[in-house]
């Protein structure tokens, strides 16, 4: 009986697929959610140290360069991902809004530039300059820092408090490419505002959704 039900279900799925003309989403557009993933950096964990080059200046940037700031926001990003492109103008505005308010921001890109040329250091530099980034974009050529931060998707946001303990890991807001929800960064802004005010971060945190990190083979 169970076998018959299984084949009936598979036949129904096949019929719907053919009837609706559904096609698989290309891998470059595939969604990767951190929701339910095991092995993520736990809340309360210390921000892993890093020493990475700034794609614009070429200068080395480390975690403790921002030790005097009230909070540290690590943004896992890249250039080619449609989810990053979707929020990019507002993310640049976000950076400008929090300048001088005690929030240090660093973007980290670790995608394999051989497989995705748009995510090369040169391309990232062009993005940072043309978009007017006010925070450094760092390139993780070995992918070691991305692994230390348990990066899964682009974009993803990891917020650390004054003691550099992880207090927020989640989405920018509810907006996604094609869903017509305005891009505001409300989820991240609420978390940052709470940390800067010395208050607990909202417990209701929705994990980020985006393109998977492109690991080297």
Q: How do the strands and helices of this protein lay out in sequence?
A:
Blueprint: H1 2-20, E1 31-33, E2 51-53, E3 60-62, E4 71-76, H2 82-97, E5 103-109, H3 121-131, E6 137-139, H4 144-148, E7 153-154, E8 156-160, E9 166-170, H5 186-196, E10 209-212
Parallel strand pairs: 4-5, 5-6
Antiparallel strand pairs: 1-10, 2-3, 4-8, 7-10, 8-9
How widely separated are the two ends?
43 Å
Written as H for each helix and E for each strand, in order along the chain, the element string is: HEEEEHEHEHEEEHE
Domain count, please report it.
1
Low-pLDDT parts are 1-36
Q: Give the strand order, joined by hyphens, for the main sheet.
A: 6-5-4-8-9
Rounded Rg = 19 Å
What CATH first level would be assigned?
A: Alpha Beta
**Main sheet summary:** 5 strands, mixed
What's the overall average pLDDT, rounded?
87
What class, by secondary structure content? alpha+beta
Report the strand count: 10
Can you name the CATH architecture? 3-Layer(aba) Sandwich
CATH H-level superfamily:
Glutaredoxin
* CATH fold description: Glutaredoxin
């Amino acid at each position: 009986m169970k076998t018959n039900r299984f084949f009936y279900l598979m036949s129904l799925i096949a019929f719907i697929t053919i009837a609706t003309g559904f096609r698989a989403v290309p891998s470059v557009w595939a969604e990767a959610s951190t929701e339910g993933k095991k092995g993520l950096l736990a809340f309360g964990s210390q921000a892993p140290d890093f020493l990475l080059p700034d794609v614009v200046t070429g200068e080395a940037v480390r975690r403790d360069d921002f030790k005097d700031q009230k909070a540290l926001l690590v943004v896992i990003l890249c250039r080619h991902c449609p989810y990053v492109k979707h929020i990019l103008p507002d993310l640049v505005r976000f950076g400008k809004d929090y300048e001088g308010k005690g929030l240090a921001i660093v973007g980290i890109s670790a995608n394999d530039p051989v497989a995705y040329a748009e995510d090369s250091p040169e391309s990232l530099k062009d993005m940072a300059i043309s978009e007017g980034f006010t925070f450094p974009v760092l390139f993780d050529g070995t992918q070691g820092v991305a692994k230390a931060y348990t990066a899964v998707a682009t974009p993803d946001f990891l917020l650390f408090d004054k003691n550099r303990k992880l207090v927020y890991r989640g989405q920018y807001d509810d907006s996604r490419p094609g869903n017509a929800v305005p891009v505001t960064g409300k989820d991240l802004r609420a978390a940052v505002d709470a940390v800067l005010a010395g208050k607990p971060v909202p417990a209701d945190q929705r994990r980020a959704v985006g393109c998977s990190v492109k690991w080297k083979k």
